[in-house]
Amino acid sequence: MASHRRPKQPSRARVTVLTTAAAAAVVMSSQAANAAPSEKPSKDEVKAKVDKLYEQAEQATEKYNGAKEKQEKLQKEISTLQDNVAKGQQELNELRDGLGSMASAQYRSGGLDPSLQLFLSADPDDYLDKASTLDQLSAQQVEALKEIQKKQRELAQQRSEASGKLEDLSATRTELGKKKKEVQGKLSSAQKLLNSLSAAEKQQLAQEESRATRASEREALNVNVPAGSGRAAAAFAAAQSKIGTPYVYGATGPSSFDCSGLTSWAYAQAGVGIPRTSEAQTGAGTKIYSMSQLKVGDLVFFFNDLHHVGLYAGNGQVLHAPRTGTVVRYESMNTIGGPFMFGVRV
Fold first, then answer.
1. Helix (H) or strand (E) holding 32
2. What angle do CA 273, 62, 289 make, to 5 degrees?
3. What gap in Å lies between CA 133 and CA 273, rounded to an integer?
4. Stretch 253-276: mean pLDDT, rounded?
5. Under 8 Å CB-to-CB from 306, ≥6 apart: which residues?
6. Which residues are part of the catalytic machinery?
7. Which helix (H) or strand (E) holds 60?
8. 8 versus 162: which is more confidently predicted?
9. What is the C-alpha to C-alpha distance for residues 125 and 176, in angstroms, rounded to an integer?
10. How far is CA 173 from the centre of its chain?
């Protein structure tokens, strides 16, 4: 006969746990329903983030510029080496042809000297190492052999150097690609932030930039380069002529510039060659650490890693290409966004 047992009742502890969990779920659900939606970043917050991204993009731009400059230098060096190798190979062939002519003449006059025959079928380096064979050759033949040996060694060295530079060039191109991608990524992130703003907010930012540009143009009327200040004056005047020209990363003018592109272009117009990147430009002259001793046309550097450079414009002003979205303009050195490190008098 089947037994009828009463179902086992849940323990008091289990009931308490389940009840507590259910209550917590109800509270959380209620809090989620009543929680205020996350606030959209303000225009000023977005601008601060965008400015930071632009600063990071400029840092990457200077690294990109350095890699690009190194690539161009390597390409020129490799081209020169390859030309030298081709020329050297032609000279080596002519030397061998000359030795072959000597061998032919010797053969016609009574048979080919065994030692010369050995050379023509062997490596001159190995052959010349056997000093005992030298006395079997004429002085003219010995000189020809030594010249061939020297030329072969030069060619081997040049080929090895070219091979090393080609490897370096490949690594530099990879680095260039990474830095370009990094710059573009920062600029893309900045653009997405700007796109999140309302039409009114975008207009307000545009008006702020427009006011900064107009203030720069007014300042241009008040800045005079001291007469007779030479190359610095000529460089500064060249940069002045580009006020209003847009900032474009990697650009060296004349229709667009980045910060070091402007300074290197300006000094080039004054007949002075300075390095391409801001960091390298720090070695273009005498360092000046006191702002009170700066003169118009001196290079001025900002941020701890020296990734921004401009031209001193007097009265605590700098003439520079600030960042993406701006143009070449005057600006107070106190508003650059990074500390003034030092100046350089070219």
1. helix 12-34
2. 70
3. 56
4. 96
5. 278, 279, 282, 341
6. 259, 308, 320
7. helix 43-108
8. 162
9. 42
10. 11
